[in-house]
Amino acid sequence: MTLKGKVALVTGAAKRVGRAIALDLAKRGAHLVIHYNTSRREGEATAAAVRRLRRRALTVQADLTDDDAVRQMVATARRTFGRVDVLVNSAAIFPKTPFATLSESDWDTAIDANLKGPFLCALHIGRAMRSSGCGKIINIADWAGIRPYRDYLPYCVAKAGVIALTKALAKELAPKVQVNCIAPGPVLWPEDFSAAERQQIIRRTPLRRAGSPADIAETVAFLIEGSDFITGATIPVEGGRLLA
């Protein structure tokens, strides 16, 4: 697949890594469906940046944990562009949930946002892709889905679920639709991380630096344009953290 003229829907595209992915795809020739939930101003800013690149952009608000909202988002995208060629499931939340105070509500919130949302998007868009005969789905997981860390138990379980979801979808949607996953490491810091915590992580990363949203965006582009013979794979983009 080449991105020129294709339509990509990026969830969580208003800010952070999702925004970087959306803009990179636009630079490579794609038209964009910019999803946001509560960050309307930032979503519109991302869309404006896409239009400055002379690509079409549509902003769509949706709570991705709500099946009706996801159906409506997909219908709006298809009504506007006629199809969706690429889905990037980037929307996520990263709540700190220490085990001592972890609640059922904490679990439900993290699992719904980080696993149910990607599932619903892939379910409805994947069915349309299979009917049309082609498509690419890229899920953004986390290296913590492979090696979990403390104080984020529901988040880590959800991201492990995204990796399993990727493999299952790859089988369900083969041979015409390829489904792959990216497992980022230290790319953007959570707001509550101190300078000392950040330096500690960098010291424990073999490449001795943090990554950037561009590292993830370029990997997304590779999974779309680089090969049509990769599916069900999880690519760690984590500076070697899984080796440490």
Could you characterize what this model shows?
- With 244 residues, the protein is α/β, with parallel strands linked by helices.
- The chain has one domain: NAD(P)-binding Rossmann-like Domain (Rossmann fold, 3-Layer(aba) Sandwich), CATH 3.40.50.720.
- The protein is 46% helix and 15% strand.
- The chain has helices at 16-27, 40-52, 67-81, 104-132, 153-173, 195-203, 213-226, and strands at 7-10, 31-36, 57-61, 86-89, 135-140, 177-184, 234-237.
- Strands 3-2-1-4-5-6-7 form a 7-stranded parallel β-sheet, sandwiched between helices.
- Helix 5 (153-173) links the parallel strand 5 and strand 6 (177-184).
- Helix 1 packs parallel to helix 2 (40-52).
- The chain starts with 6 loop residues before the first strand and ends in a 7-residue tail after the last strand.
Features:
244 residues, alpha/beta, Rossmann fold, seven-stranded parallel β-sheet, 7 strands
Write the layout of secondary structure elements.
Layout: E1 7-10, H1 16-27, E2 31-36, H2 40-52, E3 57-61, H3 67-81, E4 86-89, H4 104-132, E5 135-140, H5 153-173, E6 177-184, H6 195-203, H7 213-226, E7 234-237
Parallel strand pairs: 1-2, 1-4, 2-3, 4-5, 5-6, 6-7
Helix pairs in contact: 1-2, 1-7, 3-4, 4-5
